[in-house]
Write a structure and sequence with these properties.
The structure holds 2 protein chains of 2 kinds. Chain A is built from 8 helices and no strands. Chain A is mostly helical. Chain A has one domain. In chain A, helix 5 packs antiparallel against helix 6. Chain A is globular, with a radius of gyration of 19 Å. Chain A starts with a helix and ends in a 5-residue tail after the last helix. Chain B has one domain. Helix content of chain B is 71%, strand content 0%. The chains are: A mainly alpha, B mainly alpha. Chains A and B meet through helix 1, helix 4 and helix 5 of A and helix 7 and helix 11 of B.
Chain lengths: 219, 322
Amino acid sequence: MKLAYEISHLLAGVMLVASFALLYQQRIAAVLNAFAAQSITLALAVAWAAWSEDRPDLFITAAIALGLKGVLIPVALHRTVTRLGVHREVEKVVGVGMALLVGLALCGLSQALVVKVAPAMAGLGRDELALAMAIVLLGFLMMIVRRNAVTQVVGFMSMENGLILAATGARGMPLVVEVSVAFSVLIALFVFAVFVFRIRERFDTIDIEALDRMRGDRR
Amino acid sequence: MTAEVAVQFLAQGAQMALVLLIAPLAVGVTRRVKARLMRRQGAPLLQGYRDLAKLLRKESVLAESASWLFRTAPYLIFALTWVAAALVPSFASGLMFNWAADVVALVALLGAARALLALAGMDVGTSFGGIGSSREMMIATLAEPAMMLIVLTLAIAAGTTRLAGVADFFIAEPLAVRVSLALSLVALVIVALAENARIPVDNPMTHLELTMVHEAMVLEYSGRHLALIEAASMLKLTLYLSLLICLFAPFGMAPAAAGPGSWAVGLGAWTAKLLLGAALLGVWEVSIAKMRVFRLPDFLGVAFVFAFIAILLAYLSLGAAA
């Protein structure tokens, strides 16, 4: 039990560090890699919870997290970024140092909140809840401080990673699988939204006719 | 009783001598590994000793505008660093002065040495010295909070800020995966790189005006003064390696009540770990480029963030245990 606790704690801590890496990184490619690392860690954490607490349904969640958010979405976003030739440097509203400090404050906030709100909760669940909340808040922060649409989607999805972590930590939540699938659909939606965003930014419209006009065989 | 005290005294004296003797060798190992990885022959391992001996023999040249501070600073810096380095438990945790080996005291000693060095850098009034001092202070103000947070994390885990106590705690404790310790290890490594003026914070080999920090401060020194400053920076590297070993890999160290037999084991383990650490530093230095000075706050900010997360997690697991 002690070891199980230590390992889930470790994985959740690594996810939190990955959240900070998202805030720290300057280049879009590095941001995407950090996001992939966070998702893979999430998959490991969920799989560990499934194995150590004997809840096989969680393996599905882990598989979804690994396949979809650990591999598929980062690869897709990488390809989008290279194909669109988006400027490599991420535009930011505030500097890295400021963002990190605000992130630290959010970590402290989530900790204080969880200690206040759930003083009676058992150790393991409370820890995970505090960490998951911090990850969610950092996802919010990421969406606020980054102007680029791609990094905003990454912030959103890292927020969702935090949500799944929280759902995993809370016992007796068989809906986790469904919730995760639903969110994944939502994410796919967002990925498409990025396409639209980029198209609009480039052509000042989301009308696909603008793409036709760009083709060589003009009539 | 008196014999026991004498043995204790000798052991403590041996540790003081040991850190001083091994410090140039550790630097030599780092330089050698770097050179070999760059496919150069590299200086022999004992070059550090030769450099120091040569500098000690040479005449010390003083600038006309140098004050008494400039002349006394090297001795004080050397003494402070030596005391700090000798306080970190190396081969045994039960030595005579280990009650004084408090991490906070260690930070204070090093801070005093750094303040003196920065003052001495500005004393002569050259622009390089001033630029070096201001940059050193910038790095210090960023690295020290992180260092204090790391100390507090370890204090939460072990229940004491005494280094020997922390080491004893981690020797006794069965090896566990502890995320807060892993994070504070990373943070301490970053702080150690910054404090020792290693790449990516500063390049110890450079004499290029725009990039040097530590070298810019000591530019005016020569002869025995320079020898003392060089020896102090070597000691500082040994100190940080020794600190990392003591806090995160103390296995092999003789426990408090052990006698000379296990001291020998501890000595061998410590020396091996120290030289391994120096070699790893060499590998690290060739595999990364130096950062721009304006990027340093972000890099050291990472150390601060890691230390902060570590202390949060330590606090959390404390709540879980209670």
